[in-house]
Design a protein that fits this description.
The protein has helices spanning 6-20, 29-33, 56-59, 63-75, 93-105, 121-139, 175-199, 232-244, 260-271, 298-312, 352-361, 378-388, 405-413, and strands at residues 36-40, 78-83, 109-116, 154-158, 207-212, 249-253, 280-286, 327-330. By secondary structure, the protein is α/β, with parallel strands linked by helices.
């Protein structure tokens, strides 16, 4: 019988460990239905020399940062990435194609993200031209790029509420009527973009939009019903219903709310609507994390993400119309995992060299401590093995089992057992 090389033994160890220690896990229906997304913004002046600058225009050309972004997206169970590039920072078509394909291969849909404020007719024309040039023409290049390289939809983050006239600064009319009129212009902007997509070979692409949670307010702040024959409730309902015939989905943003009850109270109206256009409803949570911010730490933020999903997913009482309730995270830069789990030698990949480091540290020190518990053990091997198989999806909250006796015996048989000093 031929002797196995050290590399073959390492691979055999991974195979046996996967069999004994890492049996296939079945997630419950809710976990399997998670449909998270993340906003992936650019900077006007990104810093390519900063290893922690994950602006979209830097990541698209940097394989090391791409690996870290893919690891973050998969670990956090994101299925979509809303990608925006600042003017002047757009990558070449081939760079975009390579990056979009990597995202698609990882099970993440690349979505074209447009962010702005204006809703005037001139702005509408500018948006249409921009989307035509940077998204439609890109997708259709050469008769149509392979599906994995294409953008799979359009996400609009157009926020007229940040304009001066939203506060009544540009009109002699009451501020509430200004707000209401701007929202109808926002509807017209959505319609103009949708009409252009349909007329230019992109009718198959879904289009959705980010909306503040208080657009549904009927207390007088928005001005619904003022100066019309409609009541506030009737005009509010008409606006949302008309929007539902233009958009495939909306992302409602209860930013600043820090408890589950406050968040659900803010979004329950939308969640309970069966819009005539079958418009889907998702929820955005802002990853404002740290002292003095919305969430004290990462654990608090991810706990709320899980609570929101648990509250709505598959629940006919809280979600009677079966909205997807995907949580859209604002933004990627705030939740980046900058070290790849299992990359024990910190060279930005997970390979046999990291397994050798784990072998040397197993039961001896924390040189291969992937889970941060102060030692190098079978649980750290699990993390290496999961990442070694091409950075496959992992659920951030999954529990890592302790190695059983069978695994320890298997590892010991292969020469990976604890060492005596």
């Amino acid at each position: 019988m031929a002797l196995c090389s050290r590399h073959q033994i390492a691979l055999l160890a991974a195979s046996l460990a996967a069999t004994f220690l890492f049996p296939s896990t079945s997630h419950d229906a809710q976990a399997a239905s998670m449909d998270r997304a993340v906003y992936f913004w650019d900077k006007f002046v990104p810093n390519p020399s900063d290893p922690l600058d994950f602006a979209s225009s830097l990541v698209v050309t940097d394989p090391v940062k791409q690996s870290k972004v893919l690891n973050t997206l998969n670990t956090q169970n994101n299925k979509r990435a809303f990608i925006s590039y600042a003017p002047g920072n757009f990558p070449t078509g081939s760079e975009t194609a390579t990056w979009n394909q990597k995202l698609s291969d990882a099970g993440v849909e690349p979505i074209f993200l447009l962010g702005s404020l204006e809703v005037s007719p001139a702005a509408q024309l500018a948006y249409i031209n921009f989307i035509q040039t940077e998204m439609i023409n890109y997708n259709q290049f050469g008769g149509g790029r392979p599906i994995g390289e294409q953008y799979q939809g359009v996400h609009l983050d157009i926020e007229p509420q940040a304009l001066p006239q939203f506060a009544g600064g540009d009109s002699s009319l009451p501020a509430a009527i200004d707000r209401r009129d701007l929202l109808w212009e926002l509807h017209d902007t959505f319609l103009a973009i949708r009409t252009s997509l349909d007329a230019n070979g992109a009718a198959n692409l879904p289009m959705d939009a980010f909306l503040p949670v208080w657009f549904d307010d009927v207390s007088g702040f928005i001005g619904w019903g003022e100066g019309t024959v409609l009541t506030a409730v009737q005009e509010r309902d008409k606006w949302f219903d008309d929007v539902s015939n233009v958009l495939d989905g909306i992302t409602i943003a209860p930013f600043g709310q820090t408890t589950l009850s406050a968040i659900t109270n803010s979004v329950d109206w939308e969640m309970n609507q069966n819009f005539s256009g079958n418009m889907d409803v998702r929820i955005a949570l802002e990853a404002s994390i740290g002292p003095g911010k919305t969430w004290a730490n990462d654990a608090a933020f991810w706990s709320m993400v899980n609570q929101v999903e648990d509250h709505y997913l598959g629940n006919p009482v809280t979600n009677p119309h079966g909205h997807s309730v995907g949580v859209d995270i604002q933004a990627l830069s705030e939740v980046m995992i900058t070290v790849i789990p299992g990359d024990f030698d910190l060279d930005d990949d997970v390979d046999a060299a990291d397994l050798a480091l784990w072998q040397a540290s197993f039961g001896v020190d924390a040189g291969a401590d992937a889970d941060g518990d102060g030692d190098s053990d079978g649980a750290d091997f699990l993390i290496w093995q999961q990442q070694f198989t091409s950075l496959g999806p992992a659920v951030a909250a999954a529990k890592v089992p302790e190695p059983g006796t069978a695994v320890l015996l298997a590892l010991a048989f292969l020469g990976f057992g604890p060492r005596r000093r």
